[in-house]
Amino acid sequence: MDDSDAAALGRFLTLSDTAEILAITPAEALELVRSNELPAIRIGSSHLWRVERVILESYIEAKYEEARRLSLWEQSDFGNIPEISGGRVMRPRSHPSDSPR
């Protein structure tokens, strides 16, 4: 969406506009709102849901970041355990019964 398209839509989007931008159905957009995954407000006497354009853009960016992190996690295949443990190599502690007497 370029700036002229965004300006034409205005600050608040209907669920249909939101669904079109996300390439999902309006029912799926409503479910995102009802589950609080996508913040929205009710505006006007009809109390229809509206999604602020900047909120939708932030939501999309967060989804990209989530996908990026998931991809990195799957690629790592636990390959760098010291990184996960804060850079320390964790060694199992000896149990007192393991020590020679």
UniProtKB/TrEMBL annotation:
This is DNA-binding protein. It comes from the Bacteria. Keywords: DNA-binding. Residues 12-63 form the Helix-turn-helix domain. It comes from Cryobacterium psychrophilum. InterPro entries: HTH_17 (IPR041657). GO terms for molecular function: DNA binding. Pfam families: HTH_17 (PF12728).
